[in-house]
């Protein structure tokens, strides 16, 4: 087997799954962002229908009163289809007689048609039967379901609605999703858009600063500690990274809620029990940033620690011989060497903080109010989980599309700026 | 570096910062087996009633914990297996095999590795509905495996890069096909990598929360993350003893793996995974 064939064969399964769950979703996010897809439109397309409830709002889209009247009560028309049905239920003779005298005729009032039916030579005697018979000739499209556009238009034709209104009505009656740019104009109009963007920016800047400063502090301090003590602290700080998020956030809930740790301790000093996470916006932000910050600092510690270890010890010894104290050693020897790891951490975390919402969802769910609702969480809430129940996939995709663009742009940028091959260093796994 | 007499300053500062985490860990255990009285932090008597979810339904309409645990195990292990086997072949192809478009695949891989996949979840939600895989374990397994794949391929490609060419040369010269060389000579060389990837993707699957929450919300496909979240959401009284007991049970495999493979895990996470 040639290596070329083997290569293609080896790569195919990975490419297929990447295509279905990476490339297709990227494309579809773009596509969906230009639709009004939601729970009520469904995702599979739809049919044509106007129900009696919708009829009330028809006049708002510029349909004349007469047309509305006709839609609702277009009257009765003697048609071949109706006659066939009549023949089946009430006998051929009645139908034949009606055909001869009245085919093609329309009645605006049910009363008129019923009178005709009563006065036939072969009359329909029961009142109830006459009602049933009249219904066979009813011309109304309210509440009726049409599978295709042409069927719906044909039915419209029959009602006698002014042809001027046909296009608008057809569009109105469609229950599936349609193409639209409304999502983007809505995003530009809504005041919340700016707020979510500002929330995201605030969240990313604060958490990132915390991550880097604290991660550096952890890495540096554990570097100078005797290895046993250092390992204890490393273990404490590594755990948040591998504990399941649901459990990690639960521990924070316990720490901050009104029957939790802070409330208990402050309670000893007479502070009334309160929720230290959700009471005010400031507290919510503090907790959100700490929750993410502790996890991020843990990654920072690991990355920076291995970068510090890579500094040749001779440099450190030399600085000590030259009489540098601890602080000078950190400032002039170690920190300059940390430029690339810090830059890498910054770019990597910017992207991942901007788009991840798991910890915020679990902790505050964007509250109190929507004060900690970041952009990514807004996309999730709009499209996948909201209290209204109508999930707006289209609008949510528009939110997500912004993030997808930022994601592609930044990761392509990183590819150019960093030599990723060096930065994502080869795994060093002890055997 | 040289020991310093003022080192305890540093230890003290670190200890203060670490205190919240340590308190959380300690009471995570205490609250689940010996919950203190309200308003106190002194552990009470040993009380296993918080663990009742193991032998009875905590409330009606919730699936049994063992079904949920089985789902979680199935999800995590199948995902790990899929990621590892697909990465083992794709990583080798990218590392060693001469084929058309290799630089583009490599560039694409690096971009995918950095790209935040969570932004795609709305589109994936709809794709799964189209495919009829919505609310199935198979659906979330495929999605999770696909999303972990760039990381896995990247890690294993790194391992393959370190395997000496001479091993393959020797095999090829003795008349073995490239496929056989890979299977019999190269794969054993990257065993530590395969093993590490298996562990990491298992842990990642075990902890996964958002994908099952969005893509498999039904009670028959619940995993421990969504089960625990549902219990927390539905309980108005904030029964932390119960929550923490479930949390303990949930995190047992994570803690065990952590204790056994601590050093290897720190190293591979230091290699630049998503954070």
Describe this structure in words.
The complex is a heterodimer of chains A (about 425) and B (about 280). With about 425 residues, chain A is an all-alpha fold. Chain A folds into two domains: about 50-175, no CATH class; about 185-425, MetI-like (MetI-like fold). Chain A is built from 22 helices and two strands. A two-stranded antiparallel sheet of chain A has the order 1-2. The radius of gyration of chain A is 35 Å and the shape is elongated. Chain A starts with a helix and ends in an 8-residue tail after the last helix. Mean pLDDT of chain A is about 80; it is low at about 420-430. With about 280 residues, chain B is mainly alpha-helical. Chain B folds into two domains: about 5-45, no CATH class; about 60-270, Orthogonal Bundle (MetI-like fold). In chain B, about 70% of the residues lie in helices and about 0% in strands. Chain B is built from eleven helices and no strands. In chain B, helix 5 (about 135-160) packs antiparallel against helix 8 and helix 10 (about 225-235) packs antiparallel against helix 11. Chain B is globular, with a radius of gyration of 23 Å. Chain B starts with 6 loop residues before the first helix and ends in a 5-residue tail after the last helix. Mean pLDDT of chain B is about 85; it is low at about 270-275.
Beta strand count of chain A: 2
Q: Number of helix segments of chain B?
A: 11
Helix- and strand-based class of chain B? mainly alpha
What is the N-to-C succession of helices and strands of chain B? HHHHHHHHHHH
The tally of helices of chain A reads: 22
Strand content of chain A: under 5%
Mean pLDDT of chain A: 81
Q: What distance lies between the first and last C-alpha atoms of chain A, to the nearest angstrom?
A: 33 Å
- Radius of gyration computed on alpha carbons of chain B: 23 Å
- According to CATH, what is the class of the largest domain in chain B? Mainly Alpha
Low-confidence stretches of chain A: 422-431
Q: Please identify, by name, the CATH architecture of the largest domain in chain A.
A: Orthogonal Bundle
Largest sheet of chain B: none
Shape of chain B: globular
CATH top level of the largest domain in chain A? Answer: Mainly Alpha
Which architecture of the largest domain in chain B per CATH?
A: Orthogonal Bundle
Helical amount of chain A = 55-70%
